[in-house]
Write a structure and sequence with these properties.
Blueprint: E1 4-9, E2 12-18, H1 30-45, H2 50-57, H3 61-68, H4 76-86, H5 113-119, H6 121-131, H7 135-152, H8 157-160, H9 169-174
Antiparallel strand pairs: 1-2
């Protein structure tokens, strides 16, 4: 069964067209991926761990990970439970979804690579490792990561133009 969306164009009200064939067999539907990312975003903004939310809705944290990564689809009743636990309307998870312009008054947050990283397995491992550190050590590790990011983010103008350039002193030390 194909997913459908309704185009509300002035000349063609109520015309139904199938979603574009961006989905390959076995891969999650873009709408499922969007809803999963929104669950992760709202959970992180609410400062709720996966384990806490999973307990609250009566599933394992692994099952919640599958919802957030769109490995498993979220049923309507489960989405209702998640929304209730996070104190947001169910429509919050659909904000920003292409073809969902009806919910314009619900503020949507841009999905950026930081949230994608935090929701990834690598991001979760990093966070779990940081949480196990003493707060003072964690602060120092955090400062080190910020400093590394600032140092390595400096882009050589010659490299931007496509010409090769000598490594910067920072790159030379790391090689």
């Amino acid at each position: 069964m194909e997913s459908r969306k309704v185009f509300a164009e002035p000349g063609c009200p109520g015309v139904i067209q199938a979603w574009p064939k961006t989905k390959t067999e076995g891969s999650p539907h873009p709408a499922d991926q969007h809803v999963g990312r929104q669950i992760a975003i709202v959970r992180l903004q609410s400062d709720v761990s996966q384990a806490q939310l999973a307990r609250s809705i009566g599933v394992s944290f692994q099952q919640l990970q599958k919802y957030e990564n769109a490995k498993n689809r979220v049923s309507a009743s489960m989405l209702y439970e998640i929304a209730s636990s996070l104190a947001v309307p169910v429509s919050r998870f659909f904000g920003g979804l292409p073809g969902n312009e009806i919910d314009r008054d619900v503020p949507t947050l841009p999905v950026d690579e930081r949230i994608d990283f935090i929701a990834s397995a690598e991001g979760r491992r990093l966070i779990e490792g940081l949480v196990q550190l003493h707060p003072r050590v964690r602060g120092r590790v955090s400062a080190l990561i910020v400093a590394l990011g600032e140092e390595l983010a400096v882009v050589d103008p010659k490299q931007e133009s496509g010409t090769s350039a000598e490594p910067t002193p920072v790159e030379g030390r790391l090689a």
